[in-house]
Amino acid sequence: MRMKFRFFFLLMVALLGTQTTRASGALATNGRAYEEGNLVIPSPAMLRGCPKTCGKVSFDYPFGIGSGCFRDPDFNLTCVVDGSTGTHKLFLHDGITEVVDGGIDAGWSRTISIAYANNAVVTAGKDVYNLSSWSPPGRSFVGFSGKINVTGCGFDVFMLDHDSNSTFKVCSTTCPGSEITEATARQNCNGTWCCSFPIINGNFRGFQFSFVRLRGQDIRVNRTSPLWNKVSVTTVYANLGWNVADQANCADAEGDAATYACRSNNSSCVDSLVTRRGYWCYCNGGFLGNPYVPQGCSRDKGYNPIPRMVNCTRQCGDIEVPFPFGIEEGCFARKVFQLNCTNTVSSMLQMEDDEYQVAHINLDKGLIEIKYAESYQQESVRIYIDEEPDLYMGFIGQTSLAQWAVANLTCEEAQMDKTRYACVSDNSECLVVNSTMNRFYGYRCKCSTGFQGNPYLREGCQDIDECNNTRSICEEVCHNTVGSYNCIKCPDKMDYDATTKQCTSIKKQHIFLGIIIGLCSGSGVLLLSLTGVLMVRRWKRYIQMQLRRKYFRKNQGLLLEQLISSDENASDKTKIFSVEELEKATDNFHQMRIVGRGGHGMVYKGILSDQRVVAIKKSKVIEAGEINQFINEVAILSQINHRNIVKLFGCCLETEVPLLVYDFIPNGSLFSVLHSDSSTSCLSWVDCIRIAVEAAGALSYLHSAASISVFHRDVKSSNILLDGNYTAKVADFGASRLVSIDQTHIVTNVQGTFGYLDPEYYYTGQLNEKSDVYSFGVVLIELLLRKEPIFTSESGSKQNLSNYFLSGLKMRPVTEIVHAQVLDEATEEEISSVASLAEMCLRLRGEDRPTMKHVEMALRILQTERLKLCNVDPKNGQEREPVLTPPRGEDSSDELVASDCANANFPSENIKQCYSFEQEFMSYDGVSR
User: Fold this and answer.
1) Would you say residue 900 has pLDDT above 80?
2) Cα 896 from Cα 829, distance rounded (Å)
3) Is the alpha carbon torsion for 311, 312, 315, 319 positive or negative?
4) Are 445 and 406 a contacting pair, CB within 8 Å?
5) In Å, how far are 726, 823, 887, 895 from 892, measured between CA atoms?
6) 597 versus 659: which is more confidently predicted?
7) What single-letter DSSP state applies at residue 21?
């Protein structure tokens, strides 16, 4: 079974469910099966005789082949032999849905990889064709995620929406030029002869297609072509979710111990949130196996400390592959440590999934350096192998150092079973492996102090001879011992010679001669030193100047100068600063000038010679390929002039890492204000509406009003800054893209922040203005719920804010899920309006979302309505008596009082009291200004 990166929509929805834990119920004994209605609960003895594989595809109970081997008819599988190829194929009980790609792992996977194919025969003179529908084969199957290919000549492809009982267009095929084969058409599926589209549906009820002939296409090709004679529908990949559906939820299921599906003593139950009916079982933390059978969940027993094969290959090019890792079968301790050496010349060492390339393995620190494919971007790394525990942990990037453990056991548990204990060297010790979030992963081994080598081999840890260290560790004679060393003093009238590392006799010298020689030597050394210092200073200045010129050229300084000189608007306000100017402005980048830190660098506050206060963005490192991204940000900001977009003063290219110089925004980001530690946010509802209007106006300007359209691509609350007047400023254009007027979208590598990322952009790679709309919708939810985009629920599980919000709207009124402060300050109509606007922004299909202009107008209307209620004169901003004056009581939540209307066009008094970066900086007296 091959390694997979399990990032899948339906699985994520399942993991957001509410967990409940119960011990498993009783099971039939004496070799008989328990039956109730259509349910069959077989005994362990019966299950031992049931098939577990069909060809190369494996499966676990509750799925099975044959009477008594499956839980209910939905889980009845059929294994057939393909008459043309002689291979075995596994089908669900409908006989048409094939199970592919490894099989069904009931231990933790909640999805099945399936394949589907169908076609309609094309005849001359007929323009409309309908394809027979396909539905999930039983109530136990919920949710669908996949990608569909349609091959044919000249058709608009429509799909039936079961919820609205209406059809909508999904793609079109054309057939220009010469004939091609069906396989070639599918390989390049780009709208010519073949088109494709994704389907993600949590409450999936099946699909049905119809095809409508395009005008003029029927005379373009030879009618004997296979692509003319039929229209084919095939799955590129497809995943079908499943659960146990004989009870509505865990509570109902646990009430009937005889039919309760979670049979193992160490298993738990979780409700399905997809269809509102059914549940799943899973093994508790630290346990592996099948929770649907008795004793199915057990502790980790997968580590084998003794390699089955000798003379294993331990090198892949320049990369060493030490045990417990290995390349050949029998040379690794468990499946999760198997690696593939695909190219010894270029040192290509990979895990079974091509997304992961191993660059280095560090046994002493328990780290593995992994490089990722450029096309794969995600926020955290999880590497899985079927039937293996989660033993890797790390964070995504172009390169990542991931921790690893040898088994999902504590040191005490591992030492109880010496036959599987990994620390086999006598001079080794056991260490617990925890993640940065204090999540337990297991244990690893390390050579004891004074030893080095491989603790996973019997004679792997060898003594370190500390006395052979090039740097002397003793002021006397060093004597090495096993695991340590001793320092021995020299005898009387003997002195230790650090050069020979031996004791030598002390020689008496003439004191007067020594003084003369010392004075002469000292004078000569002093003269040479002064001369050397002067020469070194001149040489350093020369080297520094050459280095700055080198950095300037490497950082595309000539290109940026040309861009600035050719752009009349940019040259008036964009400047290329020298490094001396910025060092003087920041006291040589003093640490007390730091006002912001991030994963990629930090921001300094500086004061230029003309007394302008600026923020200087300095990255930690920058790859050669990121220089263009840096120039991209400068090019974008130099062409933008908007009151709600951060102003760029210029940049510096004379350092190894280029620097950006912005207008200083003193009050931090909207994210830091919304999610501060204080119980009550200093943002009032009036502030939220104003900031949302300002940010939406800036994004609308970028999309349609600027001289050239800009897609921001990383809209989030931490990129909406608040200036001294708490006016919103949209910032961070490093990921943005310029788009010409005649383009509706661009195809690019997926970038963004998890929690804000547009699902359609993630799956298609097509960036358009609606991707920013989706991200802005998440910001609106943050303003309503005051929760982070990825937050921890009361049960301790990680939840996606947008999924939490959308599912919450379906179950209860929006007033029950918004933050208490919002509920107290806003009217129900305002809350409903913002929630409805956010829901439109979060629609899965970009074409169903509003434009940023529509979002801005809707928010401005909402702001205007509040001004009308407050009776504010928009000409001078002076507040009059509120229209609704009675005090707000328990039954008057929609009424406004005078305190709700205080300067609705301006920041409220409580936000002006927020702690800011400016106050923190001014409190440091030691920094010159």
Assistant:
1) no
2) 12
3) negative
4) yes
5) 30, 12, 8, 6
6) 659
7) -
Q: In what order do the strands lie in the sheet with 648-652?
A: 575-577, 648-652, 659-663, 613-619, 601-607, 594-597
Q: Which residue has the tokens 């039939």?
A: 28
- Cis before residue 324, ω within 30 degrees of 0? yes
DSSP class of 647: P
> What's the confidence (pLDDT) of residue 3?
41
Question: Using 50, 70 and 90 to split pLDDT, how confident is the model at 27?
Answer: very low
Separation of alpha carbons 482 and 739, rounded Å: 68
Query: Per the structure block, which two tokens stand in for 363?
Result: 């046994």
CA pair distance 421, 220, nearest whole angstrom? 70
DSSP 718-749: GGEEE-TT--EEE---TT-EEE-TT-S-EE--
The Cα 688–Cα 331 span in angstroms is: 60
Evaluate if pTM is beyond 0.70. Answer: no
How many Å apart are CA 335 and CA 392, to the nearest integer?
13
Sign of CA dihedral 594, 595, 601, 606: negative
Report residue 798: phi and psi, to 5°.
-75, 135
Tell me the CA distances in angstroms from 17 to 279, 437, 790, 797, 798, one per residue in order: 10, 21, 15, 9, 10
> What's the token pair of residue 256?
């009937």
| Catalytic residue, candidates 105, 246, 714, 732 | 714
Phi, psi for 864 (deg, rounded to 5) = -65, -40
CB 190 within 8 A of CB 115: no
Query: Nearest 10 degrees: CA dihedral of 402, 406, 412, 415?
Result: -150
216 CB-side CA count, 13 A = 2
Report the distance separating Cα 176 and Cα 864, nearest Å.
54
Q: What is the DSSP code (8-state) at residue 912? A: G
Condensed to tens digits (0 to 9), the pLDDT of residues 829-876 reads: 999 999 999 999 999 998 999 999 999 999 999 999 888 776 544 444
* Interatomic CA distance for residues 341 and 362, integer angstroms: 18
Question: What interhelical angle do 769-785 and 801-811 show, nearest 10?
Answer: 70
- DSSP-assigned letter for residue 632: H
Going along the chain from its start, the domains and CATH numbers come out as 9-110+245-298 (no CATH), 114-242 (2.60.120), 315-463 (no CATH), 557-663 (3.30.200.20), 670-911 (1.10.510.10)
CA-to-CA distance for 605 and 615, rounded, in angstroms?
5
CA distance 409 to 429: 15
- 685-700 and 852-870 are packed helices; what angle lies between their axes, rounded to 10 degrees? 150
Find residue 484's DSSP bridge partners: 481
The verdict on whether 101 is a catalytic residue reads no
To the question of whether residue 575 is assigned a binding role by annotation, the answer is no
Look-up of token digits 């060393």? 485
Q: How far apart are the first and last CA of the chain?
A: 63
Query: Contact, 691 vs 697, CB < 8 A?
Result: no
**Strand blocks (E) in 251-372:** 267-271, 279-283, 288-289, 297-298, 315-316, 319-320, 340-343, 348-350, 356-362, 367-372
